[in-house]
Amino acid sequence: MSAPFDLSGRVAVVTGANTGIGQGIAVALAAAGADVACVGRSPCDETVAKVEALGRRGVFIAADLSSIEPVQRVVDEAVEKLGAIDILVNNAGIIRRTDAVDFSEADWDAVVDTNLKSVFFLCQAAGKHMIARGHGKIINIASMLSFQGGVRVPSYTASKSGVAGLTKLLANEWAAKGINVNAIAPGYIATNNTAALQSDEQRNKSIMDRIPAGRWGSPDDMGGAAVFLASSASDYVNGHILAVDGGWLAR
Ligand code: NAP
Fold first, then answer.
1. Which helix (H) or strand (E) holds 141?
2. Residues with Cβ within 6 A of ligand 1?
3. Global pTM exceeds 0.70
4. Taking the chain, what is the end-to-end CA distance rounded to the nearest angstrom?
5. 179-186 β-sheet, strand order
6. Mind listing the pLDDT tens digit for each residue in 22-61?
7. What is the pLDDT of residues 210-231, one digit of tens each?
8. pLDDT attached to residue 79
9. 206 Cα: distance to centroid of ligand 1 (angstroms)
10. For a FRET experiment, which of 14, 49, 107, 201 has its CA 20 to 30 Å from that of 177?
């Protein structure tokens, strides 16, 4: 294993790659050598440009993952444009904040459909392709709320706890087929997803007070874990939920 973190010649598909954690991961994978298909409902021009600036191929695949309608097309387009899929990062996700007693069916369905249902069916579609090739790396983006309950985010907690369980189930079924299925559980990362928390002075302070690293994470902080889980360095890592949280869970 001379360069275990080298992703040269690998093709990654990253969902929700236009911004935030998805962009950070797409760029980190490209810096390690991978070509990247950036999937999103919004154009990923900036991310594609960053991937290309690193000398890798970057393409955009338009897909609204609030339903599973585009899932097979995403896999087909990535294979058509970049030749194969070696790495899938299921990053696209949303959050809705309301007290549990007032939480609506619409906010339940929107979050669970995007964060859990589309994730499973994208794993299934890419998984079939990877199983046929005998290898592949799937990285799901979990959350601190894959471990904890949280408040005012019932569908988000259910979806991210579901992502952790699903990651383990798929690892059990596919490890012997050469597919590594793992997850990254980001701590508190400064992105659009957490804008409401960052701007709430009290919540911001209570969050900061609990993070041993003493700062919010950045999307770039997810890059090392993503490269590890996408590379041969993690070939014997299966069904693991890797917290990248500045120590949040340790406290
Ligand atoms: P973000 O900046 O809001 O990014 C979310 C990404 O998902 C965006 O690219 C967004 O596209 C995409 N997306 C949402 N709905 C979609 C849909 N229906 N179809 C296609 N793409 C869709 O937030 P982020 O923090 O980077 O979140 C990325 C992932 O990390 C999410 O799964 C989130 O739950 C998870 N996470 C975040 C934190 C954190 O502290 N920030 C912590 C734990 C887990 P648009 O830009 O078009 O909306």
1. strand 136-141
2. 16, 18-22, 40-42, 64-66, 91-94, 114, 141, 143, 186, 188-189, 191-194
3. yes
4. 35
5. 58-62, 35-40, 11-15, 87-90, 136-141, 179-186, 241-244
6. 999 999 999 999 999 999 999 999 999 999 999 999 999 9
7. 999 999 999 999 999 999 999 9
8. 98
9. 23
10. 14
- The closest alpha carbon to 123, from 236, 230, 13, belongs to 13
How far apart are alpha carbons 87 and 155 in whole angstroms?
27
Whether 1 shows a pLDDT value over 90: the answer reads no
Q: What one-character-per-residue DSSP string does 159-199 give?
A: HHHHHHHHHHHHHHHHGGGTEEEEEEEE-SB-SGGGHHHHH
Q: Which of 98, 187, 169, 155 is nearest to 127 (CA)?
A: 169
C-alpha 127/C-alpha 71 separation (Å) is: 12
Distance from C-alpha of 64 to C-alpha of 59, rounded to nearest angstrom: 16
Structure token pair of residue 234: 């993690």
